[in-house]
Amino acid sequence: MSPRYPVLLDMAGQPCLVVGGGAVAERKVLGLLGVGAIVTMIAPEATEVLAATAASGDGTLLWHERRWSPADFTSVAWRFVVAATDDAALNRVVSTAAADRGVWANDVSEPDGGAAALPAVHRDGPITLSVSTGGVHPGAATWLRDLAVGAIAPEHLTALDLVAEVRAASPQASRPDWRQAVDSGMLDLIREGRVAEAKERLKACLSS
């Protein structure tokens, strides 16, 4: 597999298509809904969770209870497509049709995810942590993601909150020297509950 270029997309309000309604499609749909995408799902059947979500009437998930057709690429300008059926040949057709129209598509049948790989993801506050193993195995990516998540402690999230506060108060200031702030004991102060002192330490690093 060729090297991939990692990128985070703003999918809020963007029309996305998921072909398939099984367990894998459920994960993909919920992931897209979780970042504010407007999702259309095309599948003859769907999991209970997906069916209930579509029936909720909030408009974020529209379910067409039928098989996919090439005509589904002519009615809407999709921003992202996921081919998530249990038919590898159909997934390939869907992802190829997307590529022909210049739309990025994730093919769940391909070990590397096809043109657009979806990594194992963890979100906590402002942090988005994603891990890809280049198609080795989804479980391997999840394992490494969980190892990395274990390294992120509450004090790190607090430190990010302090950075946001300091930047908001001084939007024209340069970026804080993270290494200097951490090495000066900022995280230790947070662990000890001395958050106000940690903030002053960060401000000092910012102005130095």
Written account of the structure:
There is one protein chain. The strands form two sheets. This protein has a five-stranded parallel β-sheet with strand order 3-2-1-4-5, with helices on both faces. The protein is α/β, with parallel strands linked by helices and 208 residues long. Helix 5 (154-169) crosses helix 8 (195-207). It contains eight helices and seven strands; from the N terminus they run βαβαββαβββααααα. The termini are far apart. It has two domains: 15-118, 3-Layer(aba) Sandwich (Rossmann fold), CATH 3.40.50; 154-207.
Quick overview of this protein structure:
The protein has 208 residues and is of the alpha/beta class. It has helices spanning 23-34, 48-55, 88-100, 138-149, 154-169, 178-183, 186-191, 195-207; strands spanning 15-19, 38-42, 61-64, 80-83, 104-107, 120-124, 127-131.
Question: How would you describe this structure in keywords?
Answer:
elongated, 208 residues, 2 domains, alpha/beta, single chain, Rossmann fold
Number of helices: 8
Strands, total number: 7
The proportion of residues forming helix, as a percent range, comes to 40-55%
* Gross morphology: elongated
Q: Looking across the biggest beta sheet, what order are the strands in? A: 3-2-1-4-5
Range of strand content: 15-25%
Q: Give the termini distance in whole angstroms.
A: 45 Å
Low-confidence region ranges:
none
CATH fold annotation of the largest domain: Rossmann fold
* Name given to the CATH architecture of the largest domain: 3-Layer(aba) Sandwich
Q: What would CATH call the class of the largest domain?
A: Alpha Beta
Number of domains: 2
User: Roughly how many Å is the radius of gyration?
Assistant: 21 Å
Q: What is the CATH superfamily classification of the largest domain?
A: NAD(P)-binding Rossmann-like Domain
Mean pLDDT: 89
Structural category: alpha/beta
